[in-house]
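Researcher: I'd like a structural prediction for the single chain below. Treat it as a standalone chain; there are no partners to consider.
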Amino acid sequence: MNFLDLTIQYKSIKEEIDEAIKRVLDSCVFIGGKEVEEFEKEVAEFCGVKYAIGLNSGTDALFLSLKALDVGPGDEVITVPFTFIATAEVVSNLGAKPVFVDINLGTFNIDAQKIEKAVTPKTKAIIPVHLFGQMADMDEIMDVARKHNLYVIEDAAQAIGAEYGSTGSPQAKRKAGTIGDLGCFSFFPSKNLGAYGDGGMVLTDNDKLAERVRLLKNHGSSPKEKYLNLIVGTNSRLDALQAAILRVKLKYLSKWSKERAGKASYYNEKLKGIGDIIIPVMDFDRNHIFHQYTIRTKSRDELQKYLKEKEIPTMIYYSLPLHLQPAFEYLNYKVGDFPESEKAAKEVLSLPIYPELFEKDQESIVHEIKNYYKI
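Model: Treating it as a single chain, here is the predicted structure.
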């Protein structure tokens, strides 16, 4: 059993993937071109946003979003300590200061009620992270941002296709990445929409921000005159091979999300009430696309060890919060500053979940977890 098996997925769409790759090879257009342009249009339509801009990674999507907003030395950006390092790393790389706010332990997302206390005259932006595939409390976050004239960048690296207000709110079914000023996706191979290499994307409805991100991703080059550089940018282009592959996979994303939800429902039904396990909390007004299926238990390390002995793979996302990472020692945070994030780091355990996960394997996982708890 594998924690994630991309081989099965590839075999299921092999003819389409191979044809897409051949199409690019035949065209010999490897940077930009029709495949990238069409992929951007298709993602924009899928998400319901004006602009989708392909980049070479999710990290660059965050980095260039901040750069497009002129975030730099002297600025502060609010985000969470319970996430992958890229979220805060890009802030530091621009000379700005990451300011952490604790999570809601139920959803693992930023506690929106704590954001305003972290706002200072130096605050320029908020980066909520839609962790594991469920969106943060965007209405509350946007209210704080508007009150204090702040930008919002959605880190939706794990949440493409997730929806907010999906049970009948006035603005029903707003997709991840479309509510803030900018939204960021990662197409890392293990993501729900994964490339066969690195890839990323920025979403926005703002004409000026879209233009600026497009300039930044291509050395600040004028789209009208060759070798005329309008601003200092970088090289962050999504290549045509990845775009072509992602175009194929995008057609299946909604189907795959439903299948992930089905796997999650099975886990929820079978694991609820087992030992001290806490199954994922799902807010009533949004859907969860389950990039990860993450339980909590105080005996996490012992359970993981037991499952490993039974040849059942698991993963821990994330074992050390960012405020305690050596890389961020300069921020002078200490143990106890963000207790919910610290508790999560000690208790979370992610189980295998992907559309092609065999029913017998899922049954085996549940069986062994019950055995561990002697049920």
